[in-house]
Amino acid sequence: ITPNMTPSPHLGWQPSEQDQLDAMLTRDIDGEPQLRVPEGVTARRLMAQMARMQLRASVAGADDLTDAELNDSFYYTLFPNFHPWGAHNRITYRFRPNGNDPNSCLMEVFFLSAFRGKRPPPAKLHLLGPDEDWTKAPELGFLAKVFNQDTGNLFRVQDGLRAAAHGHVTLAGYQETKPRHFHALLEKFISA
C-alpha cells in the first residue's frame, strides 16, 4: 500500500498541498496546474471528493469510501500472474508466457470499471510490439509515460542478471517482497 499525496519523511522540506497534488497529477513542472487546491482543503481530500463524485453513478456507497480507499495505491497479486490494484483503482495487470520464449513475456494492462445498467461493449485489444513505446497506446493516457518509466530499464536489468558472476538474485528488503513471495510460492508448488 502506497499512500499518495503524503510527503516522504526523507524530504528536507515540506511541500505545499498544491505541490502534492501537482506531483500526483504528473504535471509538467513549467505548466499551469490542472487543478487548484482550495484554501483549507488537503490535496488528498480534494482528490477523494472528486473520485466520489465520479463513482456515484456506478458504485453504490461511494460516499462511504474512505479517502485512503480512493487515493492510495493498493497492489495485490493473485498467484501466479494476475495483479489487480485495490480499492477503486481501475488498473489490473496480467503477465503471460510469450510462447516458449523464457526470456520474454506478455504484459497486459486492463482498465476495469464498475457500471450500472447495460454492459458496455468490450474494449478492443491494443497490442504493442516488444520495442514499441507505451505512448503508442493513447487509451492509457498519462499512465503511458509511467509505464515507460517503469519498464525502461527492464532490458538492462535482464542483461545484468545474465552477466552476473554469482548464481543468485539479491532482492531489496521492502520494495521487492512481491517477487520474493512469488518465487517462494512457485518453488513450493514445483517441489510439491
Word description of this protein:
The chain is an alpha+beta fold. 31% of the residues lie in helices and 11% in strands. It has 6 helices and 3 strands. The protein has helices at residues 17-24, 43-55, 67-71, 143-151, 154-163, 177-191, and strands at residues 82-84, 91-98, 101-111. It has a 3-stranded antiparallel sheet, with no helix packed on it. Strand 1 (82-84) and strand 2 (91-98) form a beta hairpin. The longest helix is centred in the C-terminal third of the chain and has 15 residues, at 177-191.
Strand order of the largest sheet: 1-2-3
Total number of strands:
3
Helix run count:
6
The helicity comes to: 25-40%
Query: Kindly, what is the distance between the CA atoms of the first and last residues, rounded to a whole number of angstroms?
Result: 31 Å
String of helices and strands: HHHEEEHHH
Classify the secondary structure makeup into a structural class: alpha+beta
In percent, how much strand structure appears in the residues? 5-15%
